[in-house]
Amino acid sequence: MSNTFCITITHCSTNPDKATLGFVVANAAQGSEKETMVFLSSDGVWCAVEDEMTKIDEGAPFAPLKDLIDKFIKAGGKIYVCTPCMKKRDITEKQLIAGATPAGGAALVEWLANGSPAVAY
Amino acid sequence: MLCDFKYTFLTELHSKNGWKRKVYINVREHISMTRAANSSPLSAGGATPASATAKTPDWSFDDEFDGGDETCGRVIVNLHLYIRDQKPGFRILVISRDPGAPMELPAWCRMTKNELTEMHHPYYLITLKPHLVRK
User: Fold this and answer.
1) Omega prior to B102 cis, within 30 of 0
2) B79 touches chain A (CB under 8 A)
3) Alpha-helix residue ranges (DSSP H) falling in B1-135
4) CA-to-CA distance for B123 and B119, rounded, in angstroms?
5) For residues A36 and B25, what is the distance between their CA atoms, to the nearest angstrom?
6) Which of A27, A35, A70, A72 is the best mutation test for B, with the most CBs of B within 10 A?
7) For tag attachment on chain B, is the N or C end more exposed, with fewer CB atoms within 10 Å?
8) Cα–Cα separations (whole angstroms), residue A54 to A18, A50, B121
């Protein structure tokens, strides 16, 4: 059984349901002692920007996105943010929440090539 | 440990080694669940849901985690954060009214090498990392 896990998320306000579900599963993976990386790309990069992330709240039974992300980071989860996707949207590194790291395709490929399962939202 | 919902005191559990823990329910959620169950063909005769009638098990435990009505990854990560600094061999009474809990918690135990010692939804007795206990 693999000890790592990856969730890729390509939505924020474009599909708040998918963004929320991605982080729910990320919490399940990290909470199950899998070293878990969330890879944010396309419009998903907005999930790592405080002002955008705090707008997402799907309501019960889901917690607000900020709550899910805070809990994921507290549990030791990693968040990688696609750099070209940031650049396309004029998002700078300073705008990213603490715990989110700019990264590129190589970081994602290395993580998966080492045998990590992945799920996409 | 309670999660983020507002709870009302339901009952009190006593462990054999002296621990005493209070159990709470989310009253608003519970009432809506009861109404739904009473109107369901699966509970003809006005039965209350299993979570409302389940008898408190007579299990020995060291501590308790009440996951409330949280579901899926929220229960798992809250439980993970609660037990991660606790000692191997500790017995935790987990209470989760998540209807997915009978699938979720056994899977979590298999992945994390915690032992699902007893299970009677919504009660789960979990022994932490028994393989790490010095003999």
Assistant:
1) no
2) yes
3) 27-38, 50-53, 72-83, 101-112
4) 6
5) 32
6) A27
7) C
8) 15, 6, 35
